[in-house]
Amino acid sequence: MSDTDDPNTDETAPRPACPNCGQPVVVTTVSGPFAGFATPCGCRVPPKGLTDSRPGH
What we know:
- By secondary structure, the chain is mainly β.
- It is built from no helices and 2 strands.
- A two-stranded antiparallel sheet has the order 1-2.
- A hairpin with a 2-residue loop joins strand 1 (27-32) and strand 2 (35-39).
- The protein is globular and about 30 Å long.
């Protein structure tokens, strides 16, 4: 359960898959205009390499 009423923070929503290894991605860290890292797998992904899995986004 979440502390907020914002429906976009639903913790039960499916996580996007890493385009490199297929593991669920919790967060991405952008380290440059063309470089980023997926967490927890650590794979390199482009900043726009993942899609938003929330409904309506």
